[in-house]
């Protein structure tokens, strides 16, 4: 008996065998190829209709993908074999076969076991199966009916009325933007209909791949054995209802959702929820049931969906199924894997035979195995009989310690490679601490083993182990066993790395431990347990700081940050031995854009010359600045120096697009992606796509100058690997370039941002401050005037904007924009396509009819010969969106754009399927993998990088031939590979995610911004706004008002990260924000965060003086709006304003303040009366006396 998983598409009507309530807005189901290729707009005309009232052709595509597994009445479905169309195939004799689908039924295809790649291992486990034959054409599946019957009947035979069925969505769902797997419901199997045949006109037939079964889930929870989680009900509730419960809708959904993070991000469960229909092991099912119990407890606690009594019935069902599953678990679940680790083949077959020969489900199979080796047990005609003498020699040749370790390891559900490691690693005392296994697996990113995996073999439980219960010192007798708690903490420390945290506060970690415990165990967990048992715990992680610690950190990350802190600090302090002596000012002035008659141009050039001198002089330097401030110009000027080039230069960037851009700055200068560079030194793990330093990793010592661009994208471990891979005694200069306010890296830390703020903080000495140049003058708009785009972007930059920058919001609302920014509004998923289409037409100055040709012209695909010579035209226009799957995500937007361009019109066969997309000739695509690929016609190998934009030049013999920006006249072939499980090398790129766009820029950018979404942040919006070289078109949901909320410090995802690189920055609790000077500024007023250090001083002084104030409160006068820094209200109802002026030395800032001052004067504000100012001085500091003086004057009026 086995439990099973069944994949279902997301359905907005509860999988009730009705058409979706709003099919057009349900884009999540399009992650399944059979749906994306069949879903049509006419479904919208049938929304909400019962399938049984529709013909087979009228039914939605999801009817063939279990979209109606909660069907309350039977309906008929017709099956047509996929090969029947070809008269040369024997399948052409198979007839369309009608099958009645009973109420509350689903169909499962065991794709894993029908794939030809699985047949070798399957034959070892089942030598009785008839041989598998491949198709005479390109196909990944078993072809011959004999093997198909054997596999399907075996799979079906394991599904009984004792099996539990788990229904899950694979990728797309509205609950979690990034969710890869989410369980929607579970219940018992009540009937298995077995393997069915196609009707035929021949004397042979083939089996249907679909195995049909009925389940026990019912809408009435009191009558049901199993449940559907109330996602639909929660989504339909108003946000205010959740707030009445003291939480947000997102928080409530997080508490009830059954996603991978609820199973310790188990790689094993991920695998079991991946192949359409697959087996789920008893161990995994136990984890799922226990997590489901916690989800239902949350549903009951919320009291928002269904009856409490009904959900309590389901809790009783879960408890009964937990008890049932425990009885099915064997005490040695990895016996077969342990045999494989020992080099013994046919482990599963041997175990199966031993069970048939008297080894009971709760017996120890090792004793029976020895009897088999000693011929006390005989299995006639077993395929392994001839190998038994060899197996006996191997077994008897093991030491007693190895045998004991093998038997111990087989108590846990482990794969053979893990067992093999611990056979050899005799220093790991797993016999007294089995949780060392889960700790090691966490360190090595083996996600199929967790602390809970070890629990099931370490806790004495006769229901699971029978007479083979574990005993001390091996056994764990309490949930609070410190060995177990340490393993949980280690797993959590590795888990939070993906959220960006390199350490965690002790309080937050103890809160986490309580969160995953029952109410009874929570009460028993001692306070400060991580401190009272420090000596035992710190074997596996460090305490920070060492004295009076408040946080814990993985040892390797403590060492990484310590190393980076020392090296970056000391190199930043020091100068190179021999600067080049170049006349950097002359080089800067030689730039073609330099205008000696323009004050801004002069100041920008002076800043650039200062930056060049710094880069020449310092052993480590940082060049930073916002969009359009000339970072690229500085690097280009630096590379114009013959003296620098004579020393050798290596250009590095995290993305392929950024590498291409770097390589265009100078001829004969080597450029690589960071991954390519580390791989060339043996310091990159391509399996996990992470840097990995080993004893065999080499040091780089060729070019003396290392320039690294887009440093904000580098994780702490990547930064560490880069610096460690350089021969630092040989390297003259390390130059780091980037914008610290862009999106943080995908992974741990924010090393570049932390470095920028450390070098620029008030406490930094002169040597450190001289190692960073922040370019402040926007050079992109010197000729054209002010940029509305960059003004808006400045609000999301983490810096205090210019004084009259608040005017941009009024300009947007009053539709008074000109130049480089346009804003359009959409209400919901229904009107977004038309709003986007209209916006593109307006921006391209074309009619709706002319749109296809205008779009083609804009991105260059109207003139392929010109495009082949210079593919850069593809980057003339780009659509950006925050996510992939939602109705406003890139998947759906690409579908719109592809049809608007018209590449897919009247070209039925001129395409290839890759992943879940049909890609046609001339389509715009993006590279998704870092690979080395041979090109045509030159036959040269080029490094293709994740993020490179290209177009499909041709499609030939199942291959898509792509030409990329930066590599003219060369094409690269990719084989079509259909299926949602395929790791696609390319995908459509008319629309890409904002994350994917990082490191790239485009002439015109359209940005689709929904007002809700977990992924929205200040940095995400800033990054999107700064991708355009010429123009941005915003498509904002509802209004611009909500967007202002994301300008606030609280909206920073960067600031929420825990790091300890230079400044200790750790949340006390999960929902808190850590403070790092320069990243986010907390104040003495509870909950108030401000935009600058000087404003912190002002707020704290106001609080101390007991003065009531408002921060950035909107001021509306004479039809205009602005946002003062501080506002005060007099007893008679007048307003007093206080503006703090930060950068008057910068011409743009000074001019902006003068415009704002004029506005204030026009509406009745007078300096020194009801308008007050303070300013930063040359050292960047504010004078306390000036603040006190202003406070005194304001208090006099209050």
From TrEMBL:
GO molecular function: ATP binding; DNA helicase activity
CDD domains per record: SF1_C_RecD
Pfam families: AAA_30, UvrD_C_2
Protein name from the UniProt record: UvrD-like helicase C-terminal domain-containing protein
PANTHER family attached to this UniProt entry: DNA HELICASE B, DNA2/NAM7 HELICASE FAMILY MEMBER
Domain UvrD-like helicase C-terminal: 988-1035
Record-linked InterPro entries: Coronavir_polyprotein_1ab, P-loop_NTPase, UvrD-like_helicase_C
Keyword terms: ATP-binding, Nucleotide-binding
Source organism superkingdom: Bacteria
Organism of this sequence: Alistipes communis
